[in-house]
Amino acid sequence: MGTLIEIATPDGPAEAYLTGEEGLPGVLFYTDAIGLRPRIEEMADRIASWGYVVLAPNVFHRDGRAADLAPTTDLREPGAREAYFEGAMRRMHALTPDLSEPDARLWVEALLQNASAPIGVTGYCMGARLAVRTAGLFPGVVAACGGFHGGGLVTDDPDSPHLALGDSTAEYVFGHADHDRSMPLEQVAALEDALQAAGRPHVNEVYEGAAHGYSMADTSMYDEAATERHFRAIEGLLARTLR
Questions:
Q1: How many structural domains comprise the chain?
Q2: What is the average per-residue pLDDT within 230-235?
Q3: Contact 145, 122 (CB under 8 A)
Q4: Which of 61, 128, 172, 243 is the most buried (most CB within 10 A)?
Q5: Cβ distance 61 to 70 under 8 Å?
Q6: Which pTM value belongs to this model?
Q7: Which of 129, 113, 24, 167 shows the shortest CA–CA distance to 121?
Q8: CA R_g for the chain
Q9: Kind and range of the H or E run holding 139
Q10: How far is Cα 78 from Cα 49, in angstroms, rounded to an integer?
Q11: What range does the domain containing 194 cover?
Q12: What is the CATH number of the domain that holds 9?
């Protein structure tokens, strides 16, 4: 349905999957730590089918092309996902805000060359952090922000993602994984406090029984019920804010 394009960056070209009819409202899609691959394209196509242009960049472009970084084993098999993450975690931790925020400006620029504003942004796993930061970088442009099975959204660091909430003008929807070590319930509560303090309209829910990574059908974490719940949530958010 979509196509791979290349976006120029100071560190060389970055691939991105672009799908949807040109000129429709835009949605920036941040991948999980596994990166750009067929499952992400499937999810982006589904969002595009609701009447949007979706751009899913290879956020790990400094480490290689998406095909070179993609898993070579079936991550639904026992232990395969955990083995793959030994390398994926290194890439994820290396993508610090000083790199991801300049990238975000390039992603939004590329999206707006094909789509109309305001735009939405959605992110998964580590992509939820990128989505929240991007919403804070683009007040008045990003009207919707979704984050699903995200981790580390509230930390004690001076650049914690939740601190960007006050700079944004977006409506937020979060669907947290149950018993997620990367986003425990006390952090979910702290995120709720931050959303209320920022005065942002939001839904901030824990999906009971859903594991971290629940939306990724190409891994052992997949949960169909939680995935469909998340799609309903993001579809409603985009309809309220972009249509």
A1: 1
A2: 98
A3: yes
A4: 128
A5: no
A6: 0.97
A7: 129
A8: 16
A9: none
A10: 33
A11: 3-71+78-242
A12: 3.40.50.1820
